[in-house]
Every structure is written in C-alpha cells, then in structure tokens.
Amino acid sequence: MDFEAFFEQQLDGVREEGRYRVFTDIKRHRGSFPQATRFVGEDTQAVTVWCSNDYLGMGQHPDVIDAMHAALDECGAGAGGTRNISGTNHHHVLLEQELADLHGKESALLFTSGYVSNWAGLGTLASKIPGCVVFSDALNHASMIEGIRHSRAPYKIWQHNDPEDLNRKLSNFGPEVPKLVAFESVYSMDGDIAPIAEILDVCEKHGAMSYIDEVHAVGLYGPRGGGIAEREGLMGRITVIEGTLGKAFGVVGGYIAASADLVDFVRTFASGFIFSTALPPAVAAGACASIKHLKTSNAERERQKERVAQVRARLDAMGIPHLPNPSHIIPVMVGDAHKCKRISDWLMDNHGIYVQPINYPTVPVGTERLRLTPSPVHDDGDIDRLITALSEIWSQCELARMATAA
Ligand code: PMP
C-alpha cells in the first residue's frame, strides 16, 4: 500500500468538504485576554478571541498564575511519574479534596484531561461492573462514546434530553441488570441544558447509576461553581460528577467526583489513570486556586451572564439568527462548512475577530456554525466591534435566509 498517497487522498476528501482544520496560531499575553496576537508569516495581527473555552478568563487570573509560579518554583516542571509511582504530589491531593468538596462528594480523582476522565471513568465502570448496560444520551461527547465503546459493555442510546425515552429503554431490562446512565448538563455545541431532575427520577426508579458530564458547567453555574447540579440542588442524587479543569477553571485536567468506594474502584482499575504520568503539580496548584476563587466569587459569573445577554440582544437587534438556549454558549448558525470557514476567515482578516468555524464531525453536516462564548473579559468595545463585523458579513453573504433554514 502507498501509505503517503492514502493519507493525502483522505485529507483531500476532508478539504473538499470544507472541514479541513487549520490551527489558528494565537499568542495570549498575560493579563490581556481576550486580546491576543496572531502570527501571519513574518507579520503579526492584533485579534480579539471570541471562541475560547476559558469561559471566565481564569487562565489569566492573578491568583491562578501566582499559585502556578509558586508551585513551579517549589516542585519543578513535571510530576515525575504516574500517580502510583512517585507522581503524586501534595498539590494533587489538595486539588482532589477541593473537587470532592465542590461537588459534595466523599472523593475525587484527577485525570490528565476531561477527555481521559470520561474515557477512563465511564469505560472502567462499564467494563468492570459485571453485566453492566450503559444508557447514553444521543448527543454525548466523543470522550464518553469512546469510553463506552472501549468498555465493550452493551449500550443503548436514548433520545437527547428525553427522560421518557430513557425510561422506555431502561424498562427493557430487569432489576437484576446493573445500569449506568450517562449524559451531560450543558451540551457544548447547542448550549441546551439537560432536565437533570427528571433524568434522575428515571434513574432512581430503575436503580441505575447516573454519570453526568458537567464539563461546560463547572465554575460557571451554581452558587460555588459546582455546575448545574449544584444550582438545582441535585448533586447528592448523582452517582458520578465528571468535570474539566481546562474550561471555566482556565488550566487543564479532568476529574470525577463520587463516593469514596467508587472513586477507589476507578483509581484501582482504570488503565487511563494507572498508566499515565500525573498532571504537573503547578497545574494542580493553579486549578486549586481557580476553584477556590470561584467558590466564593460570583463577580465573574455575574459579568459573564451580563455579557452573554448583551451579545444575544445585539444579535437579535441585527436579525442575526442564533440558537436560543439557557446557557452561556451562543451558536450563530451558518449551515454550510465552506461558508462558515469563509466568514470566519473574513472576520479575522478584516476585523481581527477570531471565531473558529465549527464543522462536522463536531456538529452534524448542515448545522455548521460560529460558536460565540462571551466572557467577563470582553468589554463594550469588543462587543460593538463583533456585532458591527457580523452584521456586515451577514448582509454581504445574504446568510440570514440560509441560517433560518439551518
Ligand atoms: N466533555 C465534553 C462535553 C466536552 O465538550 C469536552 C471538551 N470539548 C470534554 C469532555 C473533554 O474535556 P477536556 O477538554 O478537558 O479534555
């Protein structure tokens, strides 16, 4: 086989569909986010970032940066091993305690990313509980899907955010069958929110364990940033809460929080935990500082809400269609991969506005979009410039009609 020709041919196919991904090389300067610099050959361009998942700007927060500097000086760059073989540091232990407390659980366990925490956490429960059947929401993230597939446990997919369909699917299995129900709270691409209480009612009726991915909610919702489940007073009813340290907390890493026994079980059997180098202690220290700050400070959450409402209202006023949803994610629908890319390039080249096009397989073909994430660090001028530029391109491309169809 001519491997090189094969790779090229596959990539050409992706290019033709308009969904070939090009990295946007952005330099964030300390303290200036969402302002950044893009490198264009030898030149640089000032840009405003509108698509970051550092939702609250915590990646630039002085408490976080100071904690990371201090831990770096104290511990050095890397963890030096897996958690079991010399890689566990005081900062990991403190962070796990902080996370358990955040979610009102007995224990928490760190992984190197949210992806790994889902893949390993869900996968380990599904594969190591004999006879376990997994019930997965139709729009679950790739990391959960891969974890479930990898476990080789039988699984059923229930209709998105539909507790009645979940109930029907669970009813096909007797009480003796161990069941695990996996879903998210805030769905990252449409920004809709799961009816958690109803889903938990169904889980409890069938004696099923519940596993919730709160990756797009932790830090952002709830009085202490514990997520939608905290906001709705439901944390105590959920078996496993999974989250990331890489989005609202501004650093990197993932975790699960649950009962001490469940966490110990995953710690003992998850290969994605056992055989991988631990997060650098400085990362753990930064994440800990971020969580601590957001447990007591509402200022970032409040200002983010205000910014989101402002952007939505301005989009409405300009007739630019966006998916209505109750979260902080604003999907501006385009409905075509090539157009989405052209708009994104135009915004960058002409206005220094960075919004990455979102294409298949992240979203279904025909629902390509620009995903805006207003944050507390965007000011009025940033919003004015965004809306002016979007209005201009929107009328230029006569996209409104297409977007409504999408
Ligand atoms: N779950 C969901 C719903 C996500 O959107 C993502 C990341 N996009 C992850 C898990 C993985 O988290 P991380 O980026 O920390 O690996």
TrEMBL record:
Entry keyword annotation includes Membrane: no
Please give the InterPro entries that the UniProt record associates with this protein.
4pyrrol_synth_NH2levulA_synth, Aminotrans_II_pyridoxalP_BS, Aminotransferase_I/II_large, AON_synthase_class-II, PyrdxlP-dep_Trfase, PyrdxlP-dep_Trfase_major, PyrdxlP-dep_Trfase_small
Q: Which reaction does it catalyse?
A: succinyl-CoA + glycine + H(+) = 5-aminolevulinate + CO2 + CoA
Domain spans labelled Aminotransferase class I/classII large: 47-390
Enzyme Commission number(s) of this protein: 2.3.1.37
Enzyme class, broadest EC rank: transferase
The protein's UniProt keywords, in alphabetical order, are: Acyltransferase, Heme biosynthesis, Pyridoxal phosphate, Transferase
Q: Is Transferase found in the keyword set?
A: yes
Record's subunit section: Homodimer.
Protein name, entry field: 5-aminolevulinate synthase
Q: Which organism is it from?
A: Qipengyuania profundimaris
Gene (name only): hemA
